[in-house]
């Protein structure tokens, strides 16, 4: 061993230089700093999409089927200015949020049961496999029987569309929590609900967040579709109703304005709620990468 | 410490203590599923850990030390035999046994270093918020991480994570402390400091310690009793008394000789003749 | 030229199209026109909206729906695609029925009642109701009953009415649903018929297409129109045979007697001749739903239908 | 230190006993062994659900809105025996599977781009936030423009319902892959597609599987709903059309038989495809717990 | 080994080698984001690693050893200074530098032990399937895990996982081998065996090794050159030549003295007078 002796180098000792006391963020060129900002980059994506839409619509030249971006924008601004669009959106949002919260609560109960007992696990996987593929219209008759017309039934189908995907995602997240973390939690004497709340939920938060995003989107889809069917009792129709009415009357620009409202809300909620949540939790905790 | 320390009193003979071990393993075997069949990790191990013991589990990599410790922690159920703590069978984990795991990912990543130390104190309702905060401060200082109290685990080095886990377990001031190679990721000096702290705390509170290590010197210095395990599957090879060793006599001839003897017990194929049936 | 894509909706009201399809009448008349083999594609789509969209997107050549949706599309495409009607599909009444014994006339509806229609505010039934409301309560109040209207597909509304006990106690219903409801629950009774509102037998559904299809496929169009005429004769000639054909073509599970009863009902006239469509054109223009005023029904029908009708 | 000297115990050496050469699974009591089997436990859940349904339906006594389980079963058996239900199911399944595969491929492309570049990431999160909440009916006019009536449009809306939730779940899974594993992969020189396929996909498999389950279910929901509207081209309607047609003729038991087919397929796919996949991958690899 | 070994030939003076170091760190500083500001992990470190060096990074817990190694691996980008390998700046990771990480979760859990060793060989297209399989067999035997070739990582003990990672890196037979406390989880005997294997392989292939450890003895035995780092932030404290130490003279006076000297350099606060500006 050590047969080929390498060049002998002398021992060296160094004087320790003091470290810089406080470090500032490295200066970036201005254009990179602007690009660094999420909103700006996404704004660019949006502008490009709008341009593509405009071009496509002009080329198709069939504004009863596909109005241009500008036409839609005009209808959107008119709808907002007249207050109609905002009122309808408010009605929809209130139903949506209520159902979303109920759905989250129900998913939480189901997955907590599944985390605690084998019966709960069987129940969860059987129920999701059964009910998740059922379209809202299938539940309509049953909903009518139990909740009558109006909000009750609407919320029933909305909960249906929130509950299952969220429960699936959350359960998958729970099951993937690392063994060592589980052991740590149980070592603290945590059991039952406290174990779920203090260990499983935070540890599975990335999965839960993706479930929340998915079910938020599906709640919208279902709401718009269900309001078409359920329509409005006593003139209190929401966004879906607005879309439906205008579609029937072939005011396609207003239809797209209504849909644009859904898109805008989707973008705002993504940017303000979900991104913020991610930044404050999983990214801060190093459980989710921010860059590649 | 919750339990009043049982001192060998004048009216009780010294053997009285050994008559009621705090922790008793009786013919414990543990199997893991592997593909279609089972693999035995530890095989018929019997051990008695007395109140106030600093009991070391020593053995080669893969000999079942962690498995045994997890069984004492209540995380793994033996397939044979029984583990009793103060006469009651261990069926589940609990905050009466604080555990330092071997893995680096034992710290909930969503809690800062300080919150990580506070977490079990508050979860197990060991003490009030204020006392918990004081304890956290104290034990973080003891492991040299006071400056990092507000960092998140992913911002720490491997050794720093282990030290947080140590602080967390010590802050619990449990009756029974289970530590799985807690100092393996630490440099000589930090390790020495941690060993010192551990022994000083033991001196103060006289808890019972079950300590897994793969370093013979550490076993001799930290433990007062050493169980030596043989691998594949883990079986008990010997039990050695090491009460007499400490930092002060780490260079002594007795120390060296015992080190050599343990080395032999650990790594030489046992000669049947030398064995003494227990 | 030589291909035609047609869509019908579901139900007995589209019986003429079932006959055309089942008897391959287009193919037959195309040969008579000297077109040879024509390619006929039959689709079933539910709802006027989807029909309109399919027509506008060029996915279909000929679609079918109630008179008001056709008029809306005519109104919106005037000067562009110029959608116009080809022919009627029959004069069939729609009944406003209820299981609320207190309701005898339109005035008896209260806030507690709920009227189910397929498309609240816009469909055939709602428009018809709006015309009557404007007549009874004044032009400004024509949306009065929209607030107690509920969008619900016919079958669900029928089930609700038969079962009773739900909030939905009234239904503006077409055949065969009002037959079923009144058969199954004796408490269900008629409040109003669309014939009362429109002043006599009136067209329910129409077929319509774009100017482009009409102009570019004169022979196919003629063959199609001739086929429709023959289908009308076919139904008139033997109603039992027509009922059997319907059950066969639609793979329907309805009993033969029931279907025959509907076809034989003198109120139901399976004719391609439009009746009283102008009432909608006039009234909906007055209500501001239509932007263009039709001078006569001939404004929104293609010439081929001019021989008869109103 | 070491002030209170404990009882002195002698050193002991033990003779090593040989370990049992091979270990059999521990014997369980017969009833536990039966319960151990997934199918049996889930069967029990199903039987209980059926009983609840039967009781509920009898109590409501309104078989036009809610037929009993027995009535539905009869209609189901008849439908299968006559072959009608099977043919319709076949038609629907073929469209569904095609769209599902296309949706998976599209989601894979989007998430791979997102894994590789920041532009991809911005694109993915903006597009999902925008399009995921849009109901299928909103896409209908556009689908008709581009794909005409029939399978093309149907597949378009189905892909829409598969793509976004799957992309969301997969992306969340990718982002949560532990740093050390990523470094290991990049250390092997893996980059681009190979990195995604050989590191990110297996490491994120639990999340991907839950995304696959969710989007499978939503593909069904959308299919049934879309077939109601699109109806049948040249008599080739699928399960949705079957349901619609029977609903129109007030054969509620057949409507429920059609829905029961969806449920049965859901259960079978869950049991045969997803469970098997989980057993062979994430559970075998210790990435998903099998029990609590 | 891909690179032909550069032997100090008769016609080239020995200094010729030191003129072109294989790996050169020039004033390397690395910062991590922490909350709103940055935290400096390593500060202006300059090092030269020659072809065939067994270069040890030694330092207390949290002094930036892993950070530096990750920077050499190409996983972390320095905020100041440059790292060059054979004259080219390191910008990204690559299979020319096999890395053994400190964490236990570095093994893809979806691959068996054997597949884990095969994975980089096939991914980096180091060799054909057959040769890869042979190498995997060989190196798994070397780390004593031949029996566990078909087990999945989650079925292994902590030390066994680390040994798989070692086998995986060795099987790559890279020009530059980066090891981050690879033996920390191993018992005395296993550790000794691994050290032996490593040195034997070095003797055979003469790769360049950068080895992180916190154990002074291990540094002396394994390395031929030791860089000593001071913590918070990590700065270079000294460089020590340890060519002359090996297992055979581990008990010698020189060995003991050097150990003491390193201990002092590591843990005593430096007196400015004693320092020699490099
Ligand atoms: N989850 C598991 N599934 C299957 N086998 C396991 C599992 N955990 C451990 N084993 C096996 O049990 C044996 C003992 O493992 P254990 O972790 O207890 O060893 P150890 O003594 O702690 O080793 P080390 O010093 O390397 O940490 C090993 O052979 C290992 O392969
Ligand atoms: N991802 C990170 N984010 C923020 N700070 C970090 C991160 N990783 C390491 N650090 C900090 O950098 C410093 C050096 O960490 P590093 O892991 O290099 O130490 P180390 O010398 O390897 O220690 P050990 O021997 O304990 O593994 C520590 O103070 C640590 O807190
Ligand atoms: Mg271990
Ligand atoms: Mg480190």
UniProtKB/TrEMBL annotation, chains A, D:
Keywords assigned: Cell membrane, Membrane, Transmembrane, Transmembrane helix, Transport
Segments traversing the membrane: 95-116, 123-147, 153-174, 195-218, 224-244, 256-277
SUPFAM superfamilies the UniProt entry points to: MetI-like (SSF161098)
InterPro entries on file: MetI-like (IPR000515), MetI-like_sf (IPR035906)
Top-level taxonomic group: Bacteria
Main location per the UniProt record: membrane
Record membrane topology: Multi-pass membrane protein
CDD domains hit by this protein: TM_PBP2 (cd06261)
Entry's localization field: Cell membrane
Domain ABC transmembrane type-1: 85-273
One Pfam family recorded for the sequence: BPD_transp_1
UniProt record similarity statement: Belongs to the binding-protein-dependent transport system permease family.
Protein name (database record): ABC transporter permease
Organism annotation: Ideonella azotifigens
TrEMBL record, chains B, E:
ABC transporter domain sequence ranges: 23-256
Coiled coil: none
GO molecular-function terms, A-Z: ATP binding
The keyword Transport is annotated on this UniProt entry: yes
Pfam family, one: ABC_tran
Presence of the UniProt keyword Transcription in the record: no
PROSITE patterns named among the record's database cross-references: ABC_TRANSPORTER_1, ABC_TRANSPORTER_2
Keywords from the UniProt entry: ATP-binding, Cell membrane, Membrane, Nucleotide-binding, Transport
Family: Belongs to the ABC transporter superfamily.
PANTHER family, sorted: ABC TRANSPORTER ATP-BINDING PROTEIN, TAURINE IMPORT ATP-BINDING PROTEIN-RELATED
This protein's name: ABC transporter ATP-binding protein
């Amino acid at each position: 061993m050590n047969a080929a002796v390498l060049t002998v180098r002398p021992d060296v000792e160094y004087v320790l230089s003091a470290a810089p006391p406080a470090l500032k963020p490295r200066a970036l060129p201005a254009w990179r700093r602007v690009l660094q900002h999420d909103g700006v980059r996404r704004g660019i994506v949006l502008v490009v999409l709008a341009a593509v839409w405009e071009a496509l619509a002009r080329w198709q030249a069939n504004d009863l089927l596909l109005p241009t971006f500008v036409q839609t924008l005009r209808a959107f601004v008119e709808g907002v200015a007249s207050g109609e669009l905002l009122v309808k959106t408010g009605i929809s949002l209130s139903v949506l949020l209520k159902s979303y919260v109920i759905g989250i609560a129900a998913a939480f109960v189901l997955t907590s049961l599944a985390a605690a007992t084998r019966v709960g696990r069987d129940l969860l996987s059987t129920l999701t496999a059964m009910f998740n593929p059922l379209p809202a219209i299938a539940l309509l008759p049953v909903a009518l029987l139990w909740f009558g017309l109006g909000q009750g039934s609407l919320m029933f189908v909305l909960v249906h569309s929130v509950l299952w995907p969220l429960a699936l995602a959350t359960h998958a997240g729970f099951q993937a929590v690392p063994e060592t973390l589980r052991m740590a939690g149980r070592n603290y004497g945590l059991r039952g609900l406290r174990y779920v709340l203090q260990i499983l939920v935070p540890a599975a938060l990335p999965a839960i967040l993706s479930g929340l995003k998915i079910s938020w989107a599906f709640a919208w889809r279902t709401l718009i579709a269900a309001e078409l069917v359920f329509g409005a009792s006593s003139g209190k129709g929401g966004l879906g109703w607005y879309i439906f009415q205008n579609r029937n009357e072939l005011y396609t620009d207003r239809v797209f304005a209504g849909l644009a409202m859904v898109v805008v809300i989707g973008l705002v909620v993504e940017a303000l709620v979900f991104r913020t949540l991610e930044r404050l939790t999983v990214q801060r905790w190093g459980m989710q990468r921010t860059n590649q | 410490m919750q339990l009043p320390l049982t001192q060998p009193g004048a009216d009780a003979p010294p053997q009285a203590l050994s008559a009621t071990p705090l922790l008793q393993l009786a013919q414990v075997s543990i199997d893991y599923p592997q593909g279609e069949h089972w693999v035995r990790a530890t095989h018929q191990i019997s051990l008695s850990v007395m109140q106030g013991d600093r009991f070391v589990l020593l053995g080669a990599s893969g000999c079942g030390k962690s498995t045994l410790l997890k069984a004492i922690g209540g995380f793994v159920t033996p397939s044979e035999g029984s583990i009793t703590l103060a006469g009651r069978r261990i069926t589940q984990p609990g905050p009466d046994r604080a555990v330092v795991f071997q893995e680096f990912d034992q710290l909930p990543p969503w809690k800062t270093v300080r919150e990580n130390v506070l977490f079990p104190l508050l979860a197990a309702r060991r003490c009030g918020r204020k006392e918990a905060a004081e304890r956290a401060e104290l034990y973080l200082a003891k492991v040299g991480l006071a400056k990092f109290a507000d960092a998140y685990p992913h911002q720490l080095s491997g050794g720093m994570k282990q030290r947080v886990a140590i602080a967390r377990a010590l802050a619990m001031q449990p009756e029974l402390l289970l530590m799985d190679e807690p100092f393996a990721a630490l440099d000589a000096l930090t390790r020495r400091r941690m060993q010192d702290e551990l022994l000083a705390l033991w001196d103060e509170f006289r808890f019972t310690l079950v300590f897994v290590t793969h370093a013979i010197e550490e076993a001799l210095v930290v433990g007062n009793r050493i169980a030596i395990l043989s691998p594949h599957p883990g079986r008990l090879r010997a039990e050695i008394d090491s009460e007499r060793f400490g930092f002060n006599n780490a260079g002594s001839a007795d120390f060296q000789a015992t080190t050599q003897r343990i080395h032999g017990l650990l790594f030489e194929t046992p000669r049947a003749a030398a064995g003494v049936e227990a | 030229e030589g291909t035609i894509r047609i869509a019908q909706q579901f139900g007995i009201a589209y019986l003429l199209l079932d006959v055309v399809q089942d008897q391959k009448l287009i193919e037959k008349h195309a040969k008579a026109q000297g077109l040879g083999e024509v390619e006929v594609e039959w689709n079933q789509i539910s709802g006027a909206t989807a029909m309109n969209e399919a027509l506008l997107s060029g996915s279909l050549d000929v679609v079918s729906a109630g008179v008001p949706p056709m008029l809306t599309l005519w109104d919106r495409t005037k000067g562009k695609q110029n959608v116009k009607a080809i022919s009627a599909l029959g004069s069939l009444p729609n009944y406003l029925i209820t299981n609320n014994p207190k309701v005898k006339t339109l005035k008896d509806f209260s806030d507690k009642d709920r009227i189910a229609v397929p498309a609240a505010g816009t469909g055939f039934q709602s428009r018809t109701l709006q015309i009557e409301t404007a007549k009874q309560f004044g032009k400004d109040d024509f949306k009065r009953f929209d607030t107690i209207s509920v969008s619900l597909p016919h079958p669900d509304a029928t089930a609700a009415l038969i079962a009773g006990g739900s909030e939905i106690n009234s239904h503006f219903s077409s055949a065969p649903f009002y037959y079923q409801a009144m058969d199954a629950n004796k408490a269900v009774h008629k409040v109003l018929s669309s014939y009362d509102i429109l002043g006599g037998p009136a067209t329910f559904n129409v077929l319509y297409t774009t100017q482009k299809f009409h102009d570019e496929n004169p022979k196919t169009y003629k063959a199609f129109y001739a086929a429709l005429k023959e289908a009308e004769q076919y139904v008139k000639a033997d109603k039992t045979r027509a009922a059997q054909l319907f059950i066969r073509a639609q793979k329907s599970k309805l009993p033969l007697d029931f279907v025959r009863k509907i076809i034989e009902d003198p109120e139901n006239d399976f004719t391609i001749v439009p009746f009283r469509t102008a009432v909608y054109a006039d009234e909906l223009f007055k209500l501001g739903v239509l932007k263009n005023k039709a001078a006569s029904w001939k404004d929104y029908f293609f010439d081929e239908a001019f021989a008869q009708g109103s």
